[in-house]
């Protein structure tokens, strides 16, 4: 049982109302429910409701006007100081986020930018079957990464905090997705072959997600449109397990003999690929801040595009969910 459950009834109602208004996207100037309307959706006495509304008015949060109703004049959840949480999936990144170069760079860049903006940054984790919703509800913004088809997402329909996903896409009316768009980078890679036939091995993640499928489909389209003379082989891998059994990958390298190996891969695999593939094989992984070769994104630019949207959505709670793309670039 939470500490709030032991609080006086008017404080419990105050918390309920603020959470309700925040979730509904109530803005300053909007009309809020009358005391009779409040009584229809909560189990509080009229005396408690009247006291709570008087306290909210005394605190400068609402203003009651005779004959017109009550209106929000200050939104406590839209304060200048924000609590931003970044949470990753331990069922995917089993070794921890700092065992993954991509996520390490991402979280460091996010923390640096959030703190520089004067806000509070919280780092945590979740699993597919257990999400810390009580913790998330205490934050203004929750950024989730490595969400999969197995992740429990029931909380999204009732969440009052702002929820976003990063490095993937999730279609939901309350969720903003900040994905990386590799379509143009894939096209540039195939064009760089200048019509010469190439055998391309794409390492597709076996960790299913909307983003995993979108990237694979974009590779297939880019090959068809800009590299029709190229052979494309696709094989599933788990890029989060650097020390996994490499038999399948090494046998594929020896069978396919690719000129290009691209896609999801653990950094420890680069040496194995170079050893088992034909001499001169080019390795194009997904990466953050890498000089190349590969498909590269500068974290400073990406985070610089994400955070203004997040802050704006905190002000406009009625902003419907959307998918925002940031283009990666190809470095040969």
Description:
With 332 residues, the chain is of the alpha/beta class. It has three domains: 3-77, Orthogonal Bundle (Arc Repressor Mutant, subunit A); 79-180 and 299-326, 3-Layer(aba) Sandwich (Rossmann fold); 183-297, 3-Layer(aba) Sandwich (Rossmann fold). It contains ten helices and 15 strands. It has helices at 9-24, 35-41, 46-58, 101-116, 133-137, 183-191, 210-226, 247-256, 269-276, 299-315; strands at residues 31-32, 62-65, 69-72, 83-89, 120-126, 141-145, 162-166, 175-181, 199-205, 231-237, 260-263, 282-288, 294-297, 322-327, 329-331. Strands 5-4-6-7-8-14 form a six-stranded parallel beta sheet. A six-stranded mixed beta sheet has the order 10-9-11-12-13-15, sandwiched between helices. A hairpin with a 3-residue loop joins β2 and β3. α2 crosses α3 and α4 (101-116) crosses α10. The termini are far apart. The model has no long low-confidence stretch (mean pLDDT 90).
Give a brief description:
With 332 residues, this protein is of the alpha/beta class. The chain has helices spanning 9-24, 35-41, 46-58, 101-116, 133-137, 183-191, 210-226, 247-256, 269-276, 299-315; strands at 31-32, 62-65, 69-72, 83-89, 120-126, 141-145, 162-166, 175-181, 199-205, 231-237, 260-263, 282-288, 294-297, 322-327, 329-331.
